[in-house]
Amino acid sequence: MKRLQDQVAIVTGGNTGIGRAVALAYAEEGAHVAIAWIARESDARSLVDAIEQKGRRALAVRCDVTVEDEVEALMARVKETFGHIDVLVSNAGIQKPQALTETAVADWDRMIAVHMRGAFLCCRAVAPVMMAQGSGRIILVTSQLAYIGRPRYTAYSAAKGGLLAFTRALAQELAPHGILVNSVSPGLIDTGFDPLADEVKRAHAAALPLMRLGLPDDLVGSFVFLASDEARYFCGQTLHPNGGEIMP
After folding, report:
1. In the chain, what are the domains?
2. Is the model's pTM score more than 0.85?
């Protein structure tokens, strides 16, 4: 029996990068997967095909996670299609490195909205479904920058730090309902979609104990574990696949 056999998982920001790798890993472990996407529709469609080729059902829904009605519609459609929702991976995110003095209020607001408002709306929408089932897994994607910060990433670091606090509070609130809330806090992952120059990536990799950047496939074990029954005693915890950059 595969670890996620016949579970239903939602992965926001699921059509590229980390989300795509997680969606494929979940399908490999027996889950049916719904992905929420907002750009790069062709990637979403190709991912649906890849999941179905593994013998699992798949669904791609365009959804701006900052828009309440769209998030509610996403959850309703997944529930209608599959009958239940077992796992939510709140992965949708953006990056826009800027000095504080160059950061427009609109940029700050968008960063907080995508990461924190998006996670809030998705968790609020899925919680009643999981509460009715008496079970569920919620996995939020945070960052090592929530712990150490980085110049030009003030908004991003703040958003991810807020998600850490949200994870811990929500874990306590939902645990009595059989819902386990945890997070994964990656280091710098080379997804091919980040805004960093190659020389910056090389310098960062050289400073790591493992001396290389992570790839999306380096993270999927953490997500599969937290979604599985093997993590049944994990509550409000954070896993840190970061190549040794921080060791909390």
Report:
1. 8-238 (3.40.50.720)
2. yes
